[in-house]
């Protein structure tokens, strides 16, 4: 059974506290000097404060709230419109009142228990008339929630504060429950290039256009920002009522593996006051998420792996929800760094590998060199602080290493990798 949230309490405003103090002082002075008039005035002041507190308590509304979000995908630093539909369930109208909406973030399981909380800026609630029969009157208010980090947030409950007519006391009610919001890592839009990963057998094949449904259904897709106009298929666009572009190649059974550095030892910039905050780690998570979404959209079967103890769900797919909750871990895999997806064998060709790495130790380099032979192509993004001799060892084993920093945009890191690959192939 869901626990009913508390209704809140009654408190005095600064004006009410001032009158309460004046009344108390007046009583003491009147008793000391024996002035009956001052005693009467003090009693009236105290009575006014008590009456205001009772009036505020009586004016507490009975409300219901429905909360919705205006963003399809929430990401850190990007405003998420939050809409509150507040309904009055009582016959009495809600007069002068203010509202605010709370939020909180809890650390994922497996981490030290931490909580970050906040609330929207208090705002005036529009006049809310009382219920008419079975019809509840409602108003709509909105605010922008800017997620400070990725992960699972609880938005709400809302709090509505009403005041007595004299402004001496206020009463706050807690309205509704919290609503879950998952904030995903930032996903950058990566360019489609001619230098695309190859499938496990080293080939890319065309779709069978002889299948039922016709050429338009199999060789076109909806236009996306950045697609060249020369690829627009005008006949298919007229048929579908929206811009369609040619998709000449369709990859099936193509696999890629994305490796993410999740060990705390790989990210020396961990905040000493916040053991799960690291700019290097957040950059790596954003890069891995961008790669997974981009390659999945291209028709590849994406496997996400970690250098530390497994946190992501087993199976193929971008797993943005898993990347939203992944955290730094002090524990490494007992088997060392592996690039072999669950259920696969290292003796089978595994297509292309992408590694988003942190600082490299000798054991990690040895594991990466050993894993390289199972892949046709292997690309690694490494910090600029990695020594040159380490990059040379990986390059000698066939890894394409791209030095980056936390200031390198993810889109630029992808372009650098494509440029380096084309330059290497041309040489």
Which strand-content bin applies to the residues? 15-25%
CATH homologous superfamily descriptor of the largest domain: Immunoglobulins
CATH class of the largest domain: Mainly Beta
- How many helical stretches? 9
Q: How many domains would you count in the coordinates?
A: 3
Number of strands: 17
The main sheet comes to: 7 strands, antiparallel
Cα radius of gyration in angstroms: 31 Å
Shape field:
elongated
Using the coordinates shown, work out and report the CATH topology of the largest domain. Immunoglobulin-like
Integer average pLDDT: 83
Question: Any overview of this molecule?
Answer:
By secondary structure, the protein is of the alpha+beta class. It has three domains: 1-183, Immunoglobulins (Immunoglobulin-like), CATH 2.60.40; 214-246, no CATH class; 255-426, 3-Layer(aba) Sandwich (Rossmann fold), CATH 3.40.50.410. It has helices at 14-33, 36-58, 214-219, 234-240, 279-297, 320-325, 362-372, 388-396, 410-426; strands spanning 10-12, 63-69, 80-88, 97-106, 115-119, 123-124, 137-145, 151-163, 169-175, 179-183, 220-222, 244-246, 255-260, 301-306, 352-356, 377-383, 400-404. Strands 1, 4, 5, 6, 8, 9 and 10 form a seven-stranded antiparallel β-sheet that branches. It has a five-stranded parallel β-sheet with strand order 14-13-15-16-17, with helices on both faces. β16, α8 and β17 (400-404) form a beta-alpha-beta unit. α1 runs antiparallel to α2. The radius of gyration is 31 Å and the shape is elongated. The model is unreliable at 1-6, 199-218 and 249-253 (pLDDT under 50).
């Amino acid at each position: 059974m869901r626990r009913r949230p508390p209704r809140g309490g009654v408190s005095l405003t600064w004006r009410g506290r001032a009158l309460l103090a004046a009344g108390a002082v007046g009583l003491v002075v009147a008793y000391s000097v024996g002035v009956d008039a001052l005693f009467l005035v003090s009693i009236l002041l105290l009575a006014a404060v008590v009456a205001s507190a009772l009036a505020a308590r009586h004016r507490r509304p009975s409300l219901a709230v429905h909360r919705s979000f205006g963003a399809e995908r929430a990401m850190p630093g990007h405003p998420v419109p939050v809409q509150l539909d507040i309904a009055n369930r009582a016959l009495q109208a809600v007069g002068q009142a203010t509202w605010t909406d709370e939020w909180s973030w809890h650390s994922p399981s497996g981490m030290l228990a931490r909580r970050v909380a906040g609330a929207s800026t208090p705002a005036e609630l529009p006049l809310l008339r009382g219920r008419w029969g079975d019809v509840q009157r409602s108003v709509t208010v909105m605010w922008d929630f800017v997620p400070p980090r990725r992960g699972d947030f609880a938005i709400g409950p809302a709090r509505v504060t009403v005041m007595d007519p004299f402004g001496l006391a206020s009463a706050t009610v807690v309205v509704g429950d919290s609503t879950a919001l998952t904030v995903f890592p930032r996903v950058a839009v990566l360019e489609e290039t001619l230098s695309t990963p190859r499938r496990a057998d080293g080939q890319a094949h065309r779709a069978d256009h002889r299948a039922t449904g016709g050429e338009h259904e199999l060789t076109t897709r909806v236009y996306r920002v950045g697609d060249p106009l020369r690829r627009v298929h005008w006949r298919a666009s007229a048929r579908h009522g929206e811009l369609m572009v040619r998709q000449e190649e369709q990859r099936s059974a193509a696999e890629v593996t994305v490796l993410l550095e999740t060990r705390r030892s790989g990210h020396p910039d961990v905040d000493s006051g916040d053991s799960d905050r690291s700019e290097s780690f957040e950059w790596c998570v954003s890069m891995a998420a961008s790669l997974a979404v981009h390659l999945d959209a291209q028709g590849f079967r994406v496997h996400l792996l970690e250098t530390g103890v497994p946190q992501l769900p087993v199976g193929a797919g971008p797993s943005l929800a898993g990347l939203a909750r992944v955290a730094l871990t002090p524990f490494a895999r007992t088997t060392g760094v592996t690039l072999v997806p669950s259920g696969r064998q290292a003796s089978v060709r595994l297509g292309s590998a992408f590694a988003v790495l942190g600082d490299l130790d000798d054991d990690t380099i040895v594991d990466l060199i050993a894993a390289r032979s199972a892949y046709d192509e292997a690309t690694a993004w490494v910090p600029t602080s990695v020594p040159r001799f380490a990059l040379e060892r990986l390059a000698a084993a066939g890894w394409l290493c791209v030095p980056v920093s936390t200031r390198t945009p993810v889109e630029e890191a992808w372009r650098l990798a494509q440029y380096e690959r084309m330059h290497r192939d041309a040489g």
